[in-house]
Amino acid sequence: MTHVDVIVIGAGAAGLMCAAQAGYRGRQVTVLDMGKKPGRKILISGGGRCNFTNVNASPANYLCNNPHFVKSCLSRYSQHDFIELVERHGLQYHHKTLGQLFCDNSAQDIVDMLLTECDWAGVNIALRSEVLSVAANEGGYLVQTTQESYQCQSLVVASGGLTMPKLGATPIGYQIAAQFGLKVFPTTAALVPFTLHQHDKERFAALAGISIPCSITSDNGTSFKENLLFTHRGISGPAVLQISSFWRAGQSVSINLLPDMELKTQIQQWRETQGQKSLKNCLASVLPKRFVEILYDSNLLPDANVNQLTHRQIDELHATLHAWQIKPNGTEGYRTAEVTLGGVDTDELSSKTFEAKKAPGLYFIGEVTDVTGWLGGYNFQYCWSSGFAAGQFV
Ligand code: FDA
User: Fold this and answer.
1) Which of 87, 90, 126, 344 is the most exposed place for a label (fewest CB within 10 A)?
2) Buried b (16+ CB within 10 A) or exposed e, 41-80
3) Is 0.90 surpassed by the pTM of this model?
4) Atom 32, ligand 1: which residue's CA is nearest?
5) What is the pLDDT of residues 259-276, one digit of tens each?
6) Is the ipTM of this complex over 0.85?
């Protein structure tokens, strides 16, 4: 039996940040992870360059059953604090788009930075240590792993969500929450591509790899203006990943394929300048040609010159291209999702310390909690913020 002050389950973004903070306070900390390497999700994130935060991060960028929950931790450790840490370690980074910050070199830089922080703070990281069970006792918590038993005063659950099972995702965090009587919201894959019904899949198969800037809207009116990407299985790209967090099975999404154009005005201009040209050719100047051809083959566009279009046809075109309705068959699920929606109810936790109100000494941080950020570095920022917050109290 090994005695330590703090056990952190999970050497991911949230767990490593929390461990370093607690270590700097003089706490003796051990991080347990079943993987061979720490920070495995960080390493694959952002296409290997880790979109580590977003300069615009604010509580409005998070889905949570208690929308106020993240306010406290984001204000106490913000994106600017993390950027300051990155700069202090001399990491090179760049702004890509929409406030997203990426490493110039590789996501490994972020992992190395966190490991350096943990090293300076005297944190011990035990890899290949799967947590099998947890029990409360007089001294705090008893943690049984495949390697060893640990006794700790504070137990931090930073075991992440269910995405990417190949990278060691397990439901242990939800199980521990349930064991101590904490409510856990049902989980589902989010920031995930949509699969299409067979007829749409066949119809759009030839478009795999084609990307279209669009604005996409969910049933509840949430909207994102980003790119849509056709894939062999359905539709993806940042627009689709973003809206997937707001989509529920059976619903449609509405896609404005010409978000920067008013089609009726454009048709009027085409009529004045190139009235004899086919609508198909005109549209191919503002949309990918292959996509236009498929809309034609599906009888969604009239086979006419622009100056032959009737008012009714123009209204229909307007609806088709400004509010194209797609009903996904489902999502690709946890296998390819970036995050897990749902999780440990934040009402069960202190927003200041992340300690469970019903279980003193037990903390939940990062993705295991019911907090899901938009695509764009917001999820890591929540990991840094929640990890930092808990690290001051464990
Ligand atoms: P995380 O899942 O990182 O860590 C949990 C750890 O717990 C794992 O290492 C696991 O092995 C361990 N564990 C689980 N069960 C255990 C057990 N029983 N015993 C021991 N250990 C156990 N976000 C973002 O902001 N910017 C980005 O660029 C990206 N990109 C991205 C790409 C891809 C492909 C994915 C899948 C996800 C992203 N994300 C992202 C999301 C981001 O990766 C995610 O929000 C964080 O990694 C969550 O960090 P956590 O520390 O909460 O859990």
Assistant:
1) 90
2) bbbebbeebbbbbbeebebebbbbeeeebbebbbeebbbe
3) yes
4) 45
5) 999 999 999 999 999 989
6) yes
